[in-house]
Amino acid sequence: MATKIRLQRNGRKSYAFYSIVIADVRAPRDGKFTEKIGTYNPNTNPATVDLNFERALHWVMCGAQPTDTVRNILSKEGVYMKKHLLGVLPKAHSQKQKLKLNSKLGKTTNNPVWLL
Fold first, then answer.
1. pLDDT at 113 over 70
2. Is 34 within 8 Å of 60 (Cβ atoms)?
3. What are residue 32's phi and psi, to 5 degrees?
4. What is the pTM of this model?
5. From its phi and psi, is residue 19 left (phi > 0), alpha (psi between -120 and 50) or beta?
6. Which of 41, 42, 43, 23 minimizes the C-alpha distance to 33?
7. Pair 38, 62: CB distance under 8 Å
8. Cα angle 33-76-10, degrees, rounded to a multiple of 5
9. pLDDT digit string (tens) for 43-53?
10. Is the pLDDT of residue 99 over 80?
């Protein structure tokens, strides 16, 4: 299932209030979603963001693609900085790299080799 991190519109006319949700790419904008990870209120000055940082980081690490606006919000909140500092590689690439490093070191087990 391909997932996106996107905004779901709430609020009355001319007073938009958004929820930051994880949703399937085929679901409509205000339709079914998997998980709600925060809110975004652009009506305040400055805009208010309430975000569950751990869940946002989890979904970004799992490969959920954010929309442009959500990517800017996550970047300002520091989710992408944390992802960068953790240095996570894509899953298939990291598995190949671990096996390659284990073979160079002469290990036959699949224990992870950590690069720091």
1. no
2. no
3. -65, 140
4. 0.70
5. beta
6. 23
7. no
8. 35
9. 999 999 999 99
10. no
Task: Compute the radius of gyration of the chain from its Cα atoms.
Answer: 18
pLDDT tens profile 26-79: 888 888 889 999 999 999 999 999 999 999 999 999 889 999 999 999 999 999
Q: Are 20 and 41 in contact (CB under 8 A)?
A: no
What's the pLDDT band for 107 if we cut at 50, 70, 90? low
Q: Both tokens of residue 14? A: 């001319």
Distance, in Å, from the CA atom of 20 to the CA atom of 5, rounded to the nearest integer, reads: 7
**Dihedral through CA 27, CA 34, CA 24, CA 17, nearest 10?**
60
Residue the block writes with tokens 């989710």? 79
DSSP type of residue 107? -
Neighbouring CB atoms inside 10 A of 76's CB total 13
